[in-house]
Amino acid sequence: MKSENYNKKTVFLFDLDGVLIDSEKEYSRIWATVNHEFPSGQPELERIIKGCTLDKILADHYPDADVQRKVVVRLYELEGKMHYEYLPGAEELLGALKERNIPAALVTSSNDDKMAHLDEELPDLRNFFSFIVTADLISRSKPDPEGYLLGASKLNGDPRKSVVFEDSLQGVKAGRASGAFVVGVAGTLPAETLAPYADIVVHSLTEIDLDSLLKTLDAR
Known about the structure:
By secondary structure, the chain is an alpha/beta fold. The chain has two domains: about 5-20 and about 85-220, HAD superfamily/HAD-like (Rossmann fold), CATH 3.40.50.1000; about 25-80, no CATH class. About 40% of the residues lie in helices and about 10% in strands. It has helices at about 25-35, 45-50, 55-60, 65-80, 90-100, 110-120, 145-155, 170-180, 190-195, 210-220, and strands at about 10-15, 105, 130-135, 165, 180-185, 200. A six-stranded parallel beta sheet has the order 3-2-1-4-5-6, sandwiched between helices. α1 runs antiparallel to α4. The longest helix has 15 residues, at about 65-80.
């Protein structure tokens, strides 16, 4: 399939952690550490916050302003030591989209500070995207679809003809609420947890057949 044959309202919308980069296990460890040092009262904090923005995490679990400041300092200290790598199939899929001139947007709960560190670790990642939606650009965290609707709008896409790739429960719910075709990426969560809110579930992006997916989107 040549790039000129795909529906021009089709755009690809990607979550970051656990979909494109291998960071979810490290983030679980980091938030478990933060929760141990600054008890939130939620014993599985690292599990229930997946897909949430930092502002929402702080508002929901650390309402005290002084504690919030300490949590942020510790979080940034731990994040600054992280090393990011592509998950299997991620770089190849992004490269194929760029080669065909199919627009893609990154829709992440990460803020600009984290993205700056990511740029240092994977300087080529940003070049795959026509637009990047960070937590600093939205007012409502996943499972609200605001981020995905913004990403589609910035690329002049039609959500119904577009696809969302997500690994978190909040994320697949956001994708479903946006009206997009949702690909759940199992790993952070088991496939059966994502399946009720996803159109298909894969275990890695190596399983994506781009031509087949484009035909599915065009038929919606």
